[in-house]
Amino acid sequence: MYYYSTRDEKREIKLTASQAILKGLAADGGLFVPSQLPELSSSVSLDLSYPLFAYETLKPFFEGDELLDDLKDICEGAFNFPVVLNDLKDTSVLELFHGPTSAFKDFGARFLAFSMEKLLVKKGEKLCILVATSGDTGGAVASAFHKRQNLSVKVLFPKGRVAERQRRQLTCWDDNITSYEVRGSFDDCQRMVKSAFVDPSLTGLSSANSINLGRLLPQMVYYVYASMLYKARTGKEPVIIVPSGNVGNSTGAFWAKAIGAPIEKIVLAVNANKTIPEYLESGEYRPRDSVKTLANAMDVGAPSNMERLFNLFKSYDEMKANVTSYSVSDEEIKKTISDEYNKEGYILCPHTACAERVRLDHYKDDATIIVSTAHPAKFETVVEPLIGKTVEMPPALSKLVNMPSNYKEISTDYKELF
Ligand SMILES: *Cc1c(COP(=O)(O)O)cnc(C)c1O
């Protein structure tokens, strides 16, 4: 098993999983993909605990890698929270929000943090992770890297432009995590990170981007797990509907299907950012600026992981045969959240509501799993007015938002970070 860049079709440069994880982005600007998608082994069994299930699923992807002997430890450290397939009346919901920051990004961020820690301790090296965030990603990364050896994190967020509950999740850390409130916009924060990366006097910097292979691989595991569990319960292979933005989560689903997970079909639910459904309709791929929506973690007009799907499905015909996508408007998101609560008593976050809308409009009579990417309490300002009551926070989230805030306010000069 080796990894190569999506922009190196001849596969001239071959990396191990560990090298790809430490590198993040390939030198040619492409994204790392596995040299093969090996068939699921019979040792992947629902009798295993989730961490061991993950270990068995991921083992072939670390064949010959220096992390292979640590992989079990990494899975046990990273996946220390439940993965729930909740059966509602008409569909099952794969709840990926039971981790420390109540969103699916905990899976990828934690696997990446535990993998990097093992690699750095072995090499006796240190890395500092820089993250610019407008909300969710920074919290998941800070939480995942908190107290991991040989690693530190600097989180940058724009002053006055993140929701109060989100700000609290970005500033409740200590030890190896430092938070910076930047007197500027999210774009300024991103620019500061980029300037630091190209400053030759600064070394040992890295990112924890959602395009990192170390975040993608673990996002495959819960699709294998959920589809096997669904089939064991119902005898059927589900259509899986994934709320999508950068398409990292759904790429995990396509890789899971490719290695043999019992999945009938994968459907991408997007918000008003329609780049993918328009491409599937017209054959012309047109990335663009994003538009703001209520499902803001999916506000992406140029989804970076499409490059991995173009690598997996080589022609437009193949893409159309495998990928289906529908767009959901803010009005439909609101209506779906309130209808679902009134009819079923189940509370959806705005992202998950996109998947449920797509199910109701297109897959009502099919065997389905909708993917829930975040707990509704994270988006209380959208959800609470629609359902007319407070959404109780899960204990992990409530612990974070009630801790004292700890951050430095700085200008938009990146030198203030060091
Ligand atoms: C990041 C995120 C998404 C989008 O996931 P992608 O991998 O970017 O497609 C959806 N929902 C929530 C809550 C998120 O945080």
- Secondary structure class reads alpha/beta
Radius of gyration based on Cα positions: 20 Å
Spatial separation of the terminal alpha carbons? 39 Å
Mean pLDDT comes to 96
Give the names of the bound compounds.
pyridoxal-5'-phosphate
In DSSP terms (H or I, runs of 4 or more residues), the helix count works out at 17
Portion of residues in beta strands equals 5-15%
The biggest sheet amounts to: 6 strands, mixed
- Widest sheet: strand order? 3-4-12-9-10-11
Helix content range of the residues, please?
40-55%
Low-confidence stretches: none
> SSE order in H/E notation?
EHEHHEEHEHEHEHEHHEHEHHHEHHEHHE
How would you describe what is shown here?
By secondary structure, the chain is an alpha/beta fold. 41% of the residues lie in helices and 14% in strands. The protein has 17 helices and 13 strands. A 6-stranded mixed β-sheet has the order 3-4-12-9-10-11. The protein has a 5-stranded parallel β-sheet with strand order 8-5-6-7-13, with helices on both faces. Helix 4 (105-123) packs across helix 5 (136-145). The longest helix has 19 residues, at 105-123. The chain starts with a strand and ends in an 8-residue tail after the last strand. The mean pLDDT is 96. Pyridoxal-5'-phosphate binds next to helix 10.
